[in-house]
Queue: 2 jobs
Job 1
Amino acid sequence: MASMSKELPLPYPDGWAAVAFGSDLGAGKVIRARFMDEDVVLFRTRGGAAQAVTPYCPHLGAHLGYGGRVVGERLVCPFHGFAFDRTGVCVATGYGKRPPRARLGTWETTETNGLVFVWYSAQGLPPQWDVPPALLESFPYAMQCSRLLATHPQDTVENGIDLGHFRYIHGLTGVEEIESFSSDGHRARYVLAGAKGFLPGLLLRMEISTRLWGLGLNVVDTYFPQFGITLRSLVTRTATGPHQVQLRARVGVRPDAGGKSFPPASRRFRSLAALLTAAARPAFTSQLALDVPVWAHKSYIPHPPLAQGDGPITLYRRWARQFYSAAQPVGAAAVERKSSRDQ
Ligand code: FES
Ligand SMILES: [Fe+2]
């Protein structure tokens, strides 16, 4: 699918990128993920810590994602039993001999909001910000879904600020900016309003507020004032290849914006939240499905001839530029990163 699509001339963005749902990585498990056209191996120690590492054992090159196993706090290679701690240091061999001075490449890893993230900087900088914790705290029944898309993270994030497409793709009316796009370093936010006709005579109004942390994570709160319901979508976008994005979302519903009429602990709150969350999945995936064919086949217009009503696409793109610290094409950035990690 991806190879048939038009490659966007955008590098891989810096930032935190989700590589797995936390629930995919049970204690003592080893799994593989894709990030920037390479494998990433993830393991969870018996103590519960998640760690992402580069796939190849520095001893004789076995792929740790095929047969690697966790023993205590270590990852053990399937080939000769060399063991690595979470910092990548080789701490034992399979023969009980003194381990060589070998180091397995590691990714800066953090786990929060039910997702495991790794940090990427084209220039090799350490994490420049933290992933905010507890974003779904008052949305206790969040469901999760993921989908592989033929696109680039910047393009899918741009979708949320592309006011015109909400009308033509998603069938919304009266789309307007309530709070214009503003940014503060790696963060940005904006609020839109619109309405969607569902059944004859029912125009569902909604207020959509979006917060972004880089291009890898955003939180979209859709508030339905007629019902006092907020739908929260925590969406991560991970470039798994030059024109491929693994989107992971956790979506929850909270009855009443302030939680006043439904104390979160009440049974009424819990049953309503569970019911609405179950309904949120088809709503979320059906809206996403409308964008998918456009993303898969579109090209990237660097200087688009924007019209009034398009929304602050230019502002957004200017903000997004900061995440391309090395400003290299995709292939070159990957090579550069590899060599800097191998040093
Ligand atoms: S290749 Fe991993 S221990 Fe030899
Ligand atoms: Fe869309």
Job 2
Amino acid sequence: MYERYQLDIDELLERGRTEPCFICHIVARHPDYPAHIVYEDATTVAFLDKYPPEYGWTLVAPREHCEQITGDFALDEHLELQRIVYRVSESVRQEVGAERIYLCSFGRNQGNAHVHWYVAPVPQDKPFLEQEPGIFNSNILRIPEEDQASLATRLQSRLQDL
Ligand SMILES: [Zn+2]
């Protein structure tokens, strides 16, 4: 399948602390922050993870720069975001044939603060001891851009029926 490379996590964390919010830049379609968009509406965006430990990893985020996953949302706004998380998760699960989907929200207030959910499919052949939490690692798949673009298109299509 795809070869892997070791992500320089220290460099990535430093960029998260010192550079502008990458999600806001993706929402704004900044040319320095290209992304494979999977879903977008007036309040939410979903795009493929740029550094995926497994095929199909996707992020779901509010378009607005919110930092508190509950505190910055009214309940209905939060539940609406979760509806999109559900739909994206199910489209990913179906498309990549995941054994399981992990959902989590990371981020740090000092960097990568913009609320985002990881939709993290676990492949069928992932050894038991390499699943949670070890699947969240910096051993990243080198997926060609054309493959990511194709995956994003297929996920967009599935999302229309969910
Ligand atoms: Zn932001």
